[in-house]
Amino acid sequence: MRRLSAYTHDDLLLGVFGALESAERGRDAYVKAILVDGPDPHAEQLYHRVSPEDVRILSDLPAFDVWPEPRVVFVVVSYSEAMGQGCIKLEAIHGDLERANEAAVALEAEYDDEGFAMALRCFVEEVEVDRLSDGGGGRVLR
After folding, report:
1. Distances (CA, A) of 103 to 52, 74, 111, 115
2. Domain map of the chain by residue range?
3. Its pTM surpasses 0.85
């Protein structure tokens, strides 16, 4: 994922990888293609200086129904916004679309039951495993 200023844009999901080595290669390819060679569509951010450390490998996301490794997974993402800042969180990875949708609905209901002032909404993003993207729904990076 790529962390961006909460005042500028939501964080970007760059891919889901089946092995740490693949994720490391993907991270390196993204940094070279976007941050070094450019153009970087997120080069200018409010209250944030862009650096390669913004591109992170997350390995602690809960994963369900992903063995044996599927070609496509479904990432449950939550989003909330308050006072001009958006907060996006990758909640879990599912190998089954129906279960991912159920998890998203349950998470929203749990949050609503807590009575928080700002709304939390969830969505499910379909991601091809071991395919690096530019994070904007655009080109696939190699």
Report:
1. 32, 11, 12, 19
2. 20-135
3. no
